[in-house]
Amino acid sequence: MTAGAAVALDALMSSIRVDLDLAESEMQRMLATGTEPVRSLLEHVSRFRGKQLRPALVLVAGKMFGELGRDHHKVAAIVESIHVATLVHDDILDESAMRRGVETVNRKVGCETAVLLGDYLFATAFKEAALLKSRFPACDLSGVVAVVCTGEIQQVHNRNNMDLSEEIYFEIIERKTAALYAGALRNGAHLSGASQEQAAALARFGTKFGTAFQIVDDILDLTGDEARVGKSLGTDLAKAKMTLPLVRLRDLASPADRTRLEDAIASHDAGRIRPLLVEYGALESARTTADDLVRDAQRELDDLPDVPERTLLQQASEYVLSRDR
Amino acid sequence: MTAGAAVALDALMSSIRVDLDLAESEMQRMLATGTEPVRSLLEHVSRFRGKQLRPALVLVAGKMFGELGRDHHKVAAIVESIHVATLVHDDILDESAMRRGVETVNRKVGCETAVLLGDYLFATAFKEAALLKSRFPACDLSGVVAVVCTGEIQQVHNRNNMDLSEEIYFEIIERKTAALYAGALRNGAHLSGASQEQAAALARFGTKFGTAFQIVDDILDLTGDEARVGKSLGTDLAKAKMTLPLVRLRDLASPADRTRLEDAIASHDAGRIRPLLVEYGALESARTTADDLVRDAQRELDDLPDVPERTLLQQASEYVLSRDR
Questions:
Q1: Which of A145, B108, B170, B304 has its CA 20 to 30 A from that of B312?
Q2: Residue B25: how many CB atoms within 10 A of its CB?
Q3: What is the pLDDT of residue B126?
Q4: pLDDT of B120 strictly over 90
Q5: At what angle do helices A270-279 and A244-252 cross, to 10 degrees?
Q6: How many DSSP H helices and E strands does chain A contain?
Q7: Between chains, do B116 and A41 touch, taking CB under 8 Å as contact?
Q8: What ipTM does the predicted assembly reach?
Q9: A61 to chain B, minimum CA–CA distance in Å?
């Protein structure tokens, strides 16, 4: 990560540190249960959690339009629980063994329990949302989850589809990844009384930022260092998922190299793909798109109130471009 | 099915036929989507649906306390969508290939898509619930789903546990099966303005009826005819699930037969278990418990208003004892 982006992200997180801790307490309350093995499994999956970017976005968006209250903390916890549920289910889809350096639920106790634990996390998040004074989060976030699932189903459906268009690629990642970032920001703003236009501008920031985030994720899956990233890599290729670098390479390659690429994808051979990605500049091309999306995202905030959180959010969004895990 | 029970169930369903059709329309509206392959998968899973017992319970409970309105139809559709979601996920857990004579989602398009389609159905049901005027169904039914998942996780956790107590067996099936019957009745009554006591009495009926339903299901899994039942059987044994007939047999058997039973369960050998079940009367013993539960369930309704629906519900509950599929 570049020093500037790291400093900006730290500044963003520091500005809401106390509220992130309060959101964490809400999450522990929400997920408290005495029934084994649910309790110990929830403790295990709490170790999957990383930077807590999604709850942070709820809180920052809320702070742009007023004081934060307990419902912001609850919604941050709800968004994080939804995120953890999708991680637990994603690891089944990807047959991943590791996440953030610990065993996935499917690896630890089997695919069946992973299905059910994800369902439990979704249901608990929806229950918490249904109990809020504002009806907005329950309506909005359940819709977001349906959108996320639709994107994931489309992705599975397009495995081995070498002809996947860029248009469908973007539709898929906007749904499966960006929709929850957008939802986090929209709900945070809404709870603080932002206008519909203001909440929508933050959601557009989230969509573009989230899309850039997923593109970088897709690049890391091809080029990253597994020990550093802390999760199973090469899973996209193992599942014959056409991600942006591969889509770009396919479109740039000579007919002979396109045939080589198709063979390499069919045999999940990353070793033969990497030189082609470099030769045709496909990684650079994907990175440039991520870069453009972050700039676009930043501009979405230009008409919002000129508060410190707005600048922090714009500056911290750079971090996605320089992440190496 | 005995003639009397069949007539009573038909009478119950006929009394709400128009409303069941309206609930069906609400379900189709709720689940309408233009995105493939989600649309065609939802069409496929609509063929899993059977007697529509759960939506019928919402409607009958509602009718006991007043006129049915659109929100009853919506809640009936929500309950049915939740039920279908659990079926889709259950088939992954059981690795079932068939359900009601059609391919399961996991068999048709893989475990991954089955996970996601179930999630989509849950999210869509919760969204519909969140949009209702009454906040009760969203809060209550999300809690019910969490309870269902807890029961299912406990069940998976207790596979191969030959020492499973009856107490835990009943805890598991009350959660995984009976909780949704209870929820259907409680929500239907609540929407019609029933008192908390009245809704709770109906929920207790649902818990006992649902528990009896699951016991009969567990018996059928050991003794049923696959073609007639229309789904994969023997899955409990294949997953080394200790169901009530097996728990009773274990407790009744001589030390030598108990060893034989444990060997047969470990090797999933239904052929060696069936004679033991008959010899020790374990099937009869489990059936008697189901029978007692249905009588108990019927008595829970004694203090409710003496309307035709109450009698229909009491009489129709008999059907569970005589089902052969």
A1: B170
A2: 11
A3: 98
A4: yes
A5: 60
A6: 19, 2
A7: no
A8: 0.95
A9: 23
Specify the pLDDT at position A79.
Answer: 98
Nearest CA in chain A to B41: A153
Q: Which residues of A touch B (CB under 8 A)?
A: 33, 35-38, 41, 89, 92-93, 109-113, 115-120, 122-124, 126-127, 129-131, 135, 138-139, 142-143, 145-146, 149-150, 152-154, 156-157
Copy the structure tokens of residue A105.
Answer: 């639920």
**Nearest residue in A to B129, CA atom:** A139
Minimum distance, in Å, between the CA of residue A149 and any CA atom of chain B: 6
* Sign of the dihedral defined by the CA atoms of residues B277, B282, B284, B289, in that order: negative
Q: Which helix (H) or strand (E) holds B243?
A: none
| Cis amide bond preceding A37, omega within 30 | yes
Which class for B103: exposed (0-12), middle (13-18), buried (19 or more C-beta within 10 A)? middle
Record the tokens describing residue A68, joined without a space.
Answer: 């934060």
pLDDT digits (tens, 9 = 90+) for A273-319: 999 999 999 999 999 999 999 999 999 999 999 999 999 999 999 99
Q: Quick one: pLDDT band at residue B300, thresholds 50, 70, 90? A: very high
Number of H helices, E strands in chain B: 19, 2
Domains of chain A: 1-138 (1.10.600.10), 162-310 (1.10.600.10)
Q: Which residues of A105-119 are buried (b: 16+ CB within 10 A; e: fewer)?
A: bbbebbbbbbbbbbb
Q: Of the candidates B321, B265, B272, which has an alpha carbon nearest to the alpha carbon of residue B293?
A: B321
Are B78 and B31 within 8 A, CB to CB?
A: no
- In the DSSP assignment, the letter for residue B65 is T
How many residues can be counted in chain A? 325
DSSP state, residue A305: -
A-chain CB neighbours of B130 within 8 Å are: 126, 129-130, 135, 138-139, 142
- Local mean pLDDT, 10-residue blocks, chain A (325 residues): 80 96 97 95 92 96 98 98 96 88 92 96 98 98 98 95 97 98 98 98 98 96 73 77 96 97 90 93 97 98 97 93 77
Q: Which of B112, B127, B142 sits opposite A146 (nearest CB)?
A: B127
| Substitution target from A41, A78, A119 for chain B, most B beta carbons within 10 A | A119
Which of chain A's residues have a Cβ under 8 Å away from the Cβ of B153? Answer: 37-38, 41, 113, 116-117, 120
CB contact under 8 A, B117 and A153: yes
What average pLDDT does this structure show over B117-123?
A: 98
- Which chain A residues contact residue B118 at CB under 8 A? 115, 119
Please tell me the distance from the alpha carbon of residue B27 to that of residue A157, in angstroms, as a whole number: 25
